[in-house]
């Protein structure tokens, strides 16, 4: 009888061993005292101990010292109170290799009651490769933000130059006029204009300084020639959407692409157009995230003269008041957001001979932003100005 | 006679101050349409025109005057980028361009 039982146990143990060693995850079994009873092949690779070395030792062997000290206390606490801190939940913990390397692990713990008392089965997954992917994603994200910022600074220069132009022009012309008059009065021996001249000269210098800033900014903006090429708008937009989806991995908003079958050729700087799409998409995703249906629709179409990219969200639309200030350089409805986004996007679109339009939606309709670009013309004429 | 066509009131006023202060005869218009309706220009006149006018643009005004046979001396003023200015004034002959904001004395540039 006893012999048969022993053999049965031996067989099931052998099966158990081979099962452990074919598992893709690390598996460790410990008893109530924290002694390791099983330590599979994956664990040998993860921690650098053979199963012979590990079995019989306290599981704190493979923990960083700060965890090792508290583990026995956790076990005792569970034994006493039955309060589960990890069993059946799973969490991220740190493991330590024989050589001292500490690394992140996902740990799930199950519990089994055996004749020898309670045993705990831990399933361990190395999180280092997942971490690497996460890091790469956050790097890409930072790059996208950096790119957008750079372009924002660039376009802000142009916007500021534009804003400062008129008052500066007026100021300088007034000063030139007044200075001339005072000089004329002075030549006629009329008193006392020296003081005024000096003040005016200072004012001229200050205004000129501002003028130089504008000129320098303009030079910076003009240095970077946009790289225009004839591109298929569908491909350009697709790339932007792919990038956005990659960055927003695991997001809960569906992006619907409504593209036709025929290529839509436009003459454009693909990177700048992608910046517009990314900006529109970021706004739309943020709104859609808060809505019930959670989708963003990106559609591309064209007529004889123009190509269109429309980005619609499942949100509630926006009010007329918001619509009015939408494209102003520094307006934003987001606390943290760059209000520059839409103004820049429109500036880029207009620089391409196109425009950026907003349909506020409302009454159950989400907002739609439409980027319009002139179609590429085979005969080479670019716009109506030259006809 | 000096004709100023500029939609920004303070720029127009400052320009007028500069020219009339030097004793030059000046008329100011806020749009191309206004100038066309109420004035006729002669070849000895000078027109100082903002390229970025609302409605009929500065360059369209110059073309219109050329077609009508009235071709005054033209000085275009603009705050736009050099590329945009070049595109907008393409095909227009004999055009002096002053960029906003002024980098030098505009009276000298205008009367030169």
Please, could you describe this protein's structure?
The complex is a heterodimer of chains A (387) and B (112). Chain A is α+β, with helices and mostly antiparallel strands and 387 residues long. Helix content of chain A is 50%, strand content 21%. Chain A has ten helices and twelve strands. Chain A has helices at 2-22, 41-47, 51-54, 65-81, 128-187, 194-223, 233-247, 270-289, 320-325, 340-351; strands spanning 26-31, 36-39, 91-96, 102-114, 117-126, 229-232, 254-258, 265-268, 295-302, 306-313, 355-359, 368-374. In chain A, the strands form three sheets. In chain A, strands 2-1-5-4-3 form a five-stranded antiparallel β-sheet. A five-stranded mixed β-sheet of chain A has the order 7-9-10-12-11. In chain A, strands 6-8 form a two-stranded antiparallel ribbon. In chain A, strand 4 (102-114) and strand 5 (117-126) form a beta hairpin. The longest helix of chain A is centred in the middle third of the chain and has 60 residues, at 128-187. Chain A starts with a helix and ends in a 13-residue tail after the last strand. The mean pLDDT of chain B is 90. Chain B has a five-stranded parallel β-sheet, with helices on both faces. Chain B has helices spanning 9-21, 32-38, 58-67, 82-88, 106-111; strands at 2-5, 26-29, 46-50, 73-78, 95-99. Chain B contains five helices and five strands, in the order βαβαβαβαβα. Chain B has a single domain (2-111), classed as Rossmann fold, CATH 3.40.50. In chain B, helix 4 links the parallel strand 4 (73-78) and strand 5. The interface between A and B is medium-sized, with 29 and 27 residues.
């Amino acid at each position: 009888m006893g012999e048969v039982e022993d053999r049965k146990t031996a067989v099931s143990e052998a099966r158990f061993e081979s099962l452990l060693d074919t598992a893709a995850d690390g598996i460790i079994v410990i008893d109530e005292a924290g002694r390791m009873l099983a330590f599979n092949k994956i664990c040998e690779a993860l921690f650098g101990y053979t199963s012979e070395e590990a079995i019989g030792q306290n599981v704190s062997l493979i923990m960083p010292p700060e965890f090792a000290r508290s583990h026995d206390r956790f076990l005792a606490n569970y034994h006493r109170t039955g309060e589960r801190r990890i069993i059946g939940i799973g969490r991220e913990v740190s493991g330590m290799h024989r050589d001292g390397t500490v690394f992140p692990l996902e740990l799930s713990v199950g519990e089994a009651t055996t004749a020898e008392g309670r045993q705990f089965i831990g399933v361990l997954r190395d999180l280092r490769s997942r971490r690497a992917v996460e890091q790469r994603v956050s790097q890409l994200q930072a790059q996208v933000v950096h790119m957008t910022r750079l372009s924002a600074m660039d376009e802000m220069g142009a916007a500021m130059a534009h804003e400062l132009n008129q008052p500066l022009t007026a100021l300088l012309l007034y000063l030139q006029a007044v200075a001339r008059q005072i000089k004329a009065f002075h030549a006629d021996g009329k008193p006392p204009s020296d003081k005024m001249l000096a003040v005016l000269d200072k004012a001229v210098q200050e205004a000129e300084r501002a003028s130089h800033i504008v000129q320098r900014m303009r030079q910076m903006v003009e240095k970077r020639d946009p790289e225009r090429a004839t591109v298929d708008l569908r491909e350009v937009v697709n790339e932007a959407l792919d990038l956005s989806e990659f960055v927003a991995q695991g997001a809960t908003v569906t992006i619907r692409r409504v593209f036709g079958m025929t290529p839509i050729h436009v003459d454009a700087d693909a990177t700048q157009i992608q910046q517009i799409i990314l900006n529109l998409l970021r706004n739309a995703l943020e709104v859609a995230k808060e809505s019930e249906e959670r989708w963003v629709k990106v559609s591309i179409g064209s007529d004889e003269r123009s190509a269109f990219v429309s980005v619609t969200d499942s949100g509630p639309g926006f009010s007329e008041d918001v619509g009015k200030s939408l494209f102003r350089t520094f307006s934003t409805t987001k606390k943290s957001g760059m209000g520059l986004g839409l103004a820049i996007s429109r500036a880029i679109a207009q620089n391409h001979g196109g425009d950026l339009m907003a349909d506020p939606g409302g009454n159950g309709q989400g907002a739609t932003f439409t980027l319009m670009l002139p179609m590429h013309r085979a005969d080479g004429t670019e716009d109506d100005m030259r006809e | 006679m000096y004709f100023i066509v500029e939609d920004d009131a303070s720029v127009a006023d400052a320009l007028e101050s500069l020219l009339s202060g030097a004793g030059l005869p000046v008329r100011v218009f806020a749009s191309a349409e206004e100038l066309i309706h109420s004035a006729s220009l002669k070849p000895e006149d000078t027109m100082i025109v903002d390229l970025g006018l609302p409605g009929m643009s500065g360059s369209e005004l110059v073309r219109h005057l050329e077609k009508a046979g009235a071709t005054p001396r033209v000085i275009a003023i603009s705050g736009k980028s050099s590329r945009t200015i070049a595109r907008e004034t393409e095909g227009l002959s004999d055009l002096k361009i002053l960029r906003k904001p002024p980098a030098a004395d505009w009276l000298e540039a205008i009367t030169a």
